[in-house]
Structure formats: structure tokens, C-alpha cells
Amino acid sequence: MTYAAPLDDMRFVLTHLAGLPEIATFPGFEDAEPELVEAVLIEANRFASEVLAPLNATGDRQGCRCADGHVATPDGFPAAYRQFIEAGWHAMPASPDIGGQGMPAVVSSAVAEMWKSANLAFSLCQMLTMGAVEALAHHASDELKQRFLPKMVAGEWTGTMNLTESQAGSDLSAVRTRAQPDGDRYRLFGSKIFITWGEHDVAENVIHLVLARLPDAPPGTRGISLFVAPKFLVNPDGSLGARNDLVCASIEHKLGIHGSPTAVMAYGEKAGAIAYLVGQPNRGLEYMFTMMNHARLNVGLEGVAVSEAAYQKAVEFARGRVQGKPIGGAERAPIIRHPDVRRMLMDMKARVEAMRALAYCTAACMDRAQRHPDPAVRARNQGRVELLTPVVKGWCTESSIMIASTGIQVHGGVGYVEETGAAQYLRDARITTIYEGTTGIQANDLIGRKLARDKGVNAGALIHDIEAELEALAPVNHPDLSAIRSALQAALNAFEEATAWMLSHYDNDPREAAAGAVPYLKLTGAVAGGWQMARAARIAHHLLANGEPNAAFLRAKITTARFYAEHVLPEAGVSRDEITMGTASTLALEDALF
Amino acid sequence: MTYAAPLDDMRFVLTHLAGLPEIATFPGFEDAEPELVEAVLIEANRFASEVLAPLNATGDRQGCRCADGHVATPDGFPAAYRQFIEAGWHAMPASPDIGGQGMPAVVSSAVAEMWKSANLAFSLCQMLTMGAVEALAHHASDELKQRFLPKMVAGEWTGTMNLTESQAGSDLSAVRTRAQPDGDRYRLFGSKIFITWGEHDVAENVIHLVLARLPDAPPGTRGISLFVAPKFLVNPDGSLGARNDLVCASIEHKLGIHGSPTAVMAYGEKAGAIAYLVGQPNRGLEYMFTMMNHARLNVGLEGVAVSEAAYQKAVEFARGRVQGKPIGGAERAPIIRHPDVRRMLMDMKARVEAMRALAYCTAACMDRAQRHPDPAVRARNQGRVELLTPVVKGWCTESSIMIASTGIQVHGGVGYVEETGAAQYLRDARITTIYEGTTGIQANDLIGRKLARDKGVNAGALIHDIEAELEALAPVNHPDLSAIRSALQAALNAFEEATAWMLSHYDNDPREAAAGAVPYLKLTGAVAGGWQMARAARIAHHLLANGEPNAAFLRAKITTARFYAEHVLPEAGVSRDEITMGTASTLALEDALF
Predict the structure, then answer these.
(1) For A320-331, how does the pLDDT look when each residue is reduced to its tens digit (9 = 90+)?
(2) Would you say residue A378 has pLDDT above 60?
């Protein structure tokens, strides 16, 4: 079996948790009616499972090769990319005004999850291109937009983000790449590292967005501007012109995502790479941040996607591998019958479903924030997006490492052999907590800009919604739902205590607050995921009572939610303790004593 | 910086926690007096850091190559191995009566930790050989012992364990390899997989211990016998004779431990591999189990060792990498000053120290069980060894995966680049929860043979000892020790509740008990590790009050123990909840609904 999209769960989350039926009524999203969305999901699943998934292991094994500035992606990648853009998948998430299909973010999230599950390395090309598209669409001049956007949206040209330099990683204030004015354009000089899909052979041009400093720029983050520098210059008629003075110096030898070329880019080894200023000088970081929510949500979805793929692989193995007699059984049986294997599979399944629900619901909040007719609802949803984006990014990716590791464990010794494919998920997942802002960066964003800055308004709104769910659960007479309710109540209490602690310490003990930031992020993820699982269970119970078809799926959802409540939600108490009791000991040791 | 053994912590654990001064008074351990042990530690550190550590990354990159049945280990491995045996390190852990140095297990554990930290792949060769030595020494005839043991103890010949077959992994009852009688010896036919150091170029002969079935053997685990089959037959004068009919068919392409050849061994492709029965027919599994405690403790030490190495690498990076201004700081500073980086490093440090303490103390219990003059003390310590061995194996290795992963995270993007070396620790660590019995197997052993079989006597003794520690802590007036005491009390309560649950469910609800087995193992590890950290903190406090030198180390120990109490011990509550509330939901889902 190759990857198959979890369509039942995707439909359930889209329809019953994320509110797609309502979102499809918003102006501009009218196309997202049920038949079309269903067709999109079916076709995306076909493409993901038939075209992308078969290239996942081979791409990992072969990797990318770099010679003389040229990068060859793995066999099959260029052809698959051609199919991908010809089928229109590349343009799907973009707005119709720039040539896209205008699907709600919640729908394109489900589709993106499929690409990422089937072939994470491949999927990064589109993701980066769409990030560049978004930055140009928001901030570039009409002339630049006309020159670059149509081909980028269509996927004929791909896009990159050039932020990192060897001395400037999480701290972009240290960027040194220089931009020298040259008439109405600029020449770039400098070196950028970790440039995803920075050079490749799947499309004819690569459009680099580059952070650099103008000669008179102030130091630090307020002196960074955003430039666009194409690999091949573009003639006025849109045809490709001369090769620009930028080159892929090498690619990294990485733990995972081997099919995704991670380039070291050298700008201006000759006369300088010709580049065009995007928007105003010195506002480059601000422009980068405008597309941060989408990009971070997307990386959070990578956590969901890799976890789902690892789960599917583990289930398949556990069904087929016969080993030992299960307790109480007389015959040797597939290991899925062994209690500890079930525990591992349930753990994977419950976490993946909670992560998916939270990620899609956050995408739905983006849609509401953008298109809901009521400005108050838009504002409320924007607040929720701001609060939950670092959580989706940080929590789903951190969880994915553990889930992929559990997937190996289900396989036993066979899982350690690379040909099995289980290990690739761990290697691939391992980057997701790092790029697009490490978990530490997400957590600082969460406790600072997202919690302390508004004095807990958005966190309070989340608490309010979870309390409403607890009230909705109260009258339901069902042992699973009662157990879920009581676990969610305990976890919410932990979240409230930690939130109060964080709000009272952020200004006065900023180092202690920062020491508790990642535990607070994990706590928020666990509780918000538990909230979604509780909603899911209550809704499934209701649908079952109404005789909805797909009863087996709905019963499984309730069981899975209960597992989550009893095995994952208790982690909220650990995080709370780490925050409210433990930050002093985090900081107490002298540097020299590590 | 390369690896350097954590000598201060090793000395502290050996002397103050594991009781080496007392152990050195036992008959047969008189050589283990302080000066000699100190010299051993110093020299082992030199060998580990100067000879083995420099080959760790190169061995990983180059891996092993197999052609025509020959296996070449990475460059430098054969020469290092030669140095290793010439310096006498190979024979060190063996008993003097078979040519070893008769060091207590607690001392050889510290030394083994160094080999494993410096180069896990290399260290496996000695470990497997010593396992084979132990099996032969206990069960083989004098003739076989004379033929094989001296060269194996010296490391001139290496040893292997051939257990697994493709259909017989955790379930050895499915072993199919056949042993055909041929005069006073046997001929083996069959295929074995996952044979660590099954073929290589570091020594002239490989002595394989092989599980196989005699023609008239009963089915299942009671029909498996143990054989010894050398790669080269041994002439009566001890010289090497003909090549035996056993060959390395291929080696595995693995996630990690690339420097350790993992062989598929084919026995009897011609007339059958000549082999000799070890001990009695049909008792092969029983013989394997006699060396299980040592082997499992050793793999637990691998968890400690890889974690220590990952920690050292992360600290080194965090001290050198300048990035961003820490909160409250005016200048860019090394990332070790950032609160979240400190949190990660403290988490690694605290867990490693707890794991080391527990592993060494368990080794010390082995020494007491073997050599203490009082039979009652021997019996009590044997019970403790039985109880804690699966915990050391399962908990230290499970923790090591997370710790090595955190090590990558400290490095940020650089950690994902293979040349950095942080990723190797995660890849290497990932096997440790699988081989020598998966965590699930350890946990079933723990709740069955180690807990339920004696109705909780040994677990009760552990609880008793932890209660005694709580009493010893009570009168100490020190805020760190008070915090530690209260966290340990809470964790002990969780352990007692879970133990009571497990004892009351094991017979009546065996599937539910098995579903809670791994959480119970983790809970036991967290609490027992916390107990050791509490002891360490109390003793450190006492030593400080007495004006002991090395005050900085002792203060760090107290701080680290408090971190452990506030960040790790709360996990006991999660495990307790998983056990006492959550096992039904683990088992509730129908197979088809995964």
C-alpha cells in the first residue's frame, strides 16, 4: 500500500469542525461548494498517491546532486512537477486575482497535507514559491508583479526565500548581504544559506526573494530590505534574458528531505546580482512577517502530514506482521493485536487527528478573518489565527518527531532498515521544528506578541470557547464523553493557571517567562487539540444519534478522543508544573557548569 | 572539542551513589581500590576521546561495505580495534578465571559508557563478544571453553549472537534454523538476520552463537538449542583450520550505527555449518536469558552514553554560537544565555545524570548480588537487579531518542546538516529501544516476571527505599531539597498507585495490564531516576556542608536535581493516569478502524 489520504477524517474536520459549509457562503469562496471540494479532495488524493508518493523513497535514496552550479533533483521529480503544474495544482491556493483558484485556506490545507504526506521534499517547492508569490502580491510594484507573478503562480517559475546567512539564523538583524543601487535597480553581494529549492531542474527560472542591506541602512532589523532577483533576467516581452550573477555554490547533505535541494546561494561573485527592490526600503522583515502566518501554518501541516504518513505505514506493517501470541490468544497473530502495539498506534492516531483538527480550524479562522461579512467576527478570528499559528507550527512539528519515531518502533528491527521507509519519516520530520522559526522562536512569539501584548484577550477568548464546549458536553450522557469532559476540564485548569502565571511574569520576570515559553506552547497545543477532539466526539455522538452513515468512523472518533483525553491531555499538568514551578531551576545553573 | 568523559559525575555516582568503596571490599573485587579505578577511568577517557571518538563521524559517513561475503569496516576501525585489545580494554570486564581483570560491573559500566559515547558502532563489537563469552563460560563444556574462550576474552576472536530470523523477531519461538547431528557435532542450516558484527575485518575469527532446532525438538520456545559455530574451524593445537560453511550474505543499510556491520548470515549453503552444542539440548533460550541482565544493562548504558555525547555537543555549540540578544542583555551573546536554550540543555543534563545514576546503581546491585558476603543482601540485590534491568534498558534508551533530538534542536538549522554530527546521535540512538528486546518487551518483562510474579515484593522494596530517602530529606533545611522532596513524594504516590493497579489487574485483565506496561516502565524510570537525583542532591548538600572540594560541581548537582524534580518527575502523573484510567481506551478500537 502506498499513501492514501485520510479522506473520511479530512471531510469530517472540514465539515463539522472547521465549518467549511459556512465558509463557502462568504463572498469570494462561492466556488467551494461541496461537490467541487469533494472532487478536489478525490483528485488530489489520486495525484498524491499515484504520482508523488511513489517518488518519496526513491527521492530520499537518490537525493539531489550539485555540480557547477547546476542541481539535479531525483529521477522523476521534473516530470512529476510538470504534471503537477499542468493539472493546475500549483496555482490552486492562490487568489483568483493573480491567477489562482481562490479556494479557502481550509481546503487548500487539506490538499497541502496530501502533498506533504506523499512527498514532503517535493511539496516544499510549491510551498516556497507560494510564499514568494504572497510577498510579491502584497508588496511589489505592479510592474514587478506583472513581470513575475503569472509564471510563478502557474508554477512555470519557482520562488525562494533567502533569509539566512551563516551568522544570521534566528537572528536576522545580523544579515550582511549588501544591495548596491544601480540606476533603478540594485546589485546584490553576499552569501545565503539554507535556501530551500534554491536551484533545481524542475522549472526554467527561479525567482529569489532576498533580504539585504542598502548602503545607508540603519543597523539591525530596521535596516533590512526585500529584493527580488531572478536566476534569469526577464526581458520586457516576458522571455528569459541573461543569466543573473547568482549561483548555487553547493547543496547541504542533510538528515532528511533529501529530495529538496537546500542551496548555498552566492550573490554577486562578478558584477553583482541584478535585483529589484520590493516595496519600501528597510521594511524587508516586516514584509516577510506578512506571510509568516501562512508559512508557519503550512509547516505545522507538515507535522500533521508526516505523522499521518508514518501512522499509515505503521498500521500497514502491524496488520501484516505476524509475531507471537497475543495475551489470551491461542494462535500467532498480527502484531496489531498486541496491547502495546495498539497503544503505539492509538497514540499516533489520536495525536494526528487532534493536530489535523487544530491546523484546519486555524486555517478556517484565516478564511473567516479574511472573508467573513462581519468585521467583528473577522477581527476575532484574526486574533485566534495570531494566537494559534505558532502553536500549530510548534506543537504539530514537535509531536511529529515523536510520532515518526513511534512509527519506527512499531516496525521493530525492520524499522531501522532504511529500505523499509519508516525511518525516512523521522529524518524528514526532524527539520520541521527548526525551519520557518524554531519551536523556541514560535514559543517566544506566542508568549510575547500573541499573549502578553494583548494582555491575554485572545487567550481568554480561547478559554471561553473551551468552557463553552465543556458546557455543551455536560448534559451528554455517555461514559466516553464524560471521561473526555473531565480530562479537558483538568487540562483547561492547567492552561488557565499557566496563562495567569505567564501574564503576571512576562513583564517583571521576562527571562523566567521565556524559560516557560516552550512548555506553554506545548500546553496550548495539547489543550487546544483536546478541545477539538472533545468537539469531534460530541459531534460524532450527535451524528450517530441522528443515524448518520459512516457509523464506524464516528464511533472510532469517540474512542480516539477518549484515548487522547486519557493519554495526551494529562501532559498539560506537566507543562503547567514546568511553567509555574520550574522556570527558576531552568535558569539557575551558571554557564560554566553545563 | 571531541568527547570527554564526564569524570566528575562518574566519580560522584560511583563513590557516593553506587557504593563502590563498599563493593571494593567484597571478595574478588579487592583490586577495585580507588587509585586503580581512578587510573582506569583516566586511561579509558584518553582512549575513548583520542582513539575512538575521532572515528565516530568518519565511521558513520563511510559505513561498512560487503562484497563476496567479506565485510570491510570503516577506515581506522581495524587499527583502533587492535589498539583496544592490545591495551587490554577488551578483557577488562571479564572474570579473572577466564582471563579478565575482574573489575566490578559498576566500574566496567563507567568504562563502557565511555566507549559507547565515543563510538557506539565500534563499541558493539566488544559488547557482543562479551555476551558470547558469558554464555559460553556459563554453559559450554570445558572443551569448548578451552577452545574458544581465551582468544575471545582477549578479543583476538570476536563473538556474535544469532537469534533473529525474518519470521522470528521478538518471538523466538518461531526460530527455524536446523541443527543436524553429525557425529559429536552438528551441521547448521538456516538464515539469521540482524547479526551485529556478524562479519568484519577487525579480527581473524568470528565465533557465532546460534539458536537452532534439533530434529526431534519440540515446537516453540522449548525446542531451541544453543550452538557455537566458528567462522574458521579451530584445530586441536588452537590454530585456525578450514573455513566453515557460514557466510555473510549481505549487510543492512540502516538509519544509524553505520560503523557496525549488521549481517544477514547464511548457514549451510553447502554441507552445513559445523557447530557444537552448548550445554543441554532445548535449553538455548534459557541460556540466552542468563546473560540478558548484563546485555540489557549494557544497552541501557548506550542510552546514557549517546545522550551524554549529544549533550556535550549541544553545550559546545551553545557556548560558541552567537545569535541574538538575550532578554535583558545589550549585546549579541552565545545562545547558551537564551532561556529556551538553557531549558533544552538542562533537560538533557538532568535526564542524563539521572539515567547514569540509575544505570550504575543497578550495576552495583549486580556486584552486590554476586559478591556481597551476606546471602540475604545478595538476594535483595538480585531482586533489585531483576526489577530495574528492564527499566534501565527501556527508560534510558527511550529517553536517549528525545535527548539526541533535543541536541539537534539546540543547533538549529546547522543541526540538520549531517556534517555537524548532532544528527548522528539521533540516528544511532534510534536502535537502542529496539535491539536486545524492544521497550514493549522490556515492559512486559517488568510487569510480568519482575512485578506480578513476586506479588510486588521487589517493587515494594524499592518503594520502601524511596520512602527512606524522603525521610532523610525531611530534616534538611534547604529550598532546593524541599522542592525535590515534595516532587519526589508526588511521583512516588503515582508509582504506588500504578503499582497497586498493575498488581490487581495483571491476572484478571492481562490485556489491560499489558496496555499499561510501557507507561509503567517509564513511570518506574522517572521515579527511580528522581530518587537517585534526590539522593545525589542530599549527599551533595552534605558534602558541601563538610567543605568538600569541587563545590561548583556539587552545587550544580543540587540545581540539576531540582530541575529534574520540577520538569521530569511530573511525568510520573501522566504515566499513572495512562495506566489507571486509560488502558480501556487503548484497547477499545476495532482492528479494522485503525
Answers:
(1) 999 999 888 889
(2) yes
- Chain B CB within 8 Å of residue A332 CB: yes
* Res. B588: pLDDT tops 80: yes
Cell numbers standing for residue A439: 519551536
Which one of B167, B443, B563 has the shortest CB-CB distance to A340?
Answer: B443
Q: Supply the pLDDT for residue A292.
A: 82
Distances (CA, A) of A274 to A176, A182, A189: 17, 9, 10
Quote the CATH superfamily of domain A290-583: Butyryl-CoA Dehydrogenase, subunit A, domain 3 (1.20.140.10)
Share of chain B above pLDDT 70, in %: 100
Architecture of the domain defined by A140-146+155-288: Beta Barrel (2.40)
A-chain residues within 8 Å CB-CB of B587?
Answer: 339, 342
- A340 and B593 within 8 Å at the Cβ level: the answer is no
Q: Chain centroid to CA B273: how far?
A: 31
Look at residue B282 and tell me whether its pLDDT is greater than 60: yes
| Three-class SS state of A585 | helix
Alpha-carbon span A41 to A108, nearest angstrom: 9
- Buried-exposed string B340-355: b where 16+ CB fall within 10 A, e elsewhere: bbbbbbbbbbbbbbbb
Whole-complex ipTM:
0.98
Interface test with A, best of B166, B321, B416, B427 (most A CBs within 10 A): B416
Query: Which residues in chain B have Cβ-Cβ distances shorter than 8 Å to A518?
Result: 340, 343
- The predicted pLDDT at position A328 comes to 81
Residue of A nearest to B193 (CA): A413
Class of the CATH-defined domain B290-585: mainly alpha
The answer to whether residues B193 and B264 touch, using CB atoms and an 8 Å cutoff, is: yes
Q: Do the domains spanning B157-283 and B290-585 agree at the CATH topology level?
A: no
The residues of B that are catalytic are: 436
Q: Is B431 on the interface with A (CB under 8 A)?
A: yes
pLDDT greater than 60 at residue A515: yes
Mean pLDDT rounded to a whole number for chain B: 97
Provide CATH code, domain B157-283. 2.40.110.20
Distances (CA, A) of A241 to A157, A233, B57, B232: 14, 5, 45, 69
Find which of B445, B557, B567 to mutate to test the A interface (most A CBs within 10 Å of its CB): B567
- CA angle A413-A418-A421, nearest 5°? 95
- Residue in A with minimal Cα distance to B411: A434
Q: How distant is the Cα of A201 from the closest Cα of chain B, in angstroms? A: 22
Q: Say what percent of chain A tops pLDDT 90.
A: 96
Mean pLDDT of A186-207: 98
In chain B, where are the structural domains located? Answer: 7-137, 157-283, 290-585
In a mutagenesis test of the A interface, which of B8, B255, B332, B414 is the best target, namely the one with the most A β-carbons within 10 Å? Answer: B255
Provide the pLDDT for residue B177: 98
- pLDDT at position B102, please? 87
Fold assignment, A7-65+73-137: Butyryl-Coa Dehydrogenase, subunit A; domain 1 (1.10.540)
B260 CA to chain A: closest CA distance, Å? 13
Please tell me the predicted confidence (pLDDT) of residue A1.
56
How does residue B1 score in pLDDT terms, banded at 50, 70 and 90? low
Are the C-beta atoms of A215 and A178 separated by less than 8 Å?
yes
- Give CA–CA dist B240/B151, Å, rounded: 12
- Residues of A annotated as catalytic (active site), given as ranges: 436
Q: What does the pLDDT read at residue B330?
A: 86
The overall pTM is greater than 0.90 = yes
CATH of segment(s) B7-137: 1.10.540.10
Alpha-carbon distance values, B102 to A273, B28, B95, B152, B253 (Å): 69, 7, 5, 16, 37
User: Which residues are CB-contacts of B157 (< 8 A; sequence separation ≥ 6)?
Assistant: B129, B148, B151, B203, B204, B205, B206, B207, B230
What is the C-alpha separation between B104 and B362, in angstroms, rounded? 12
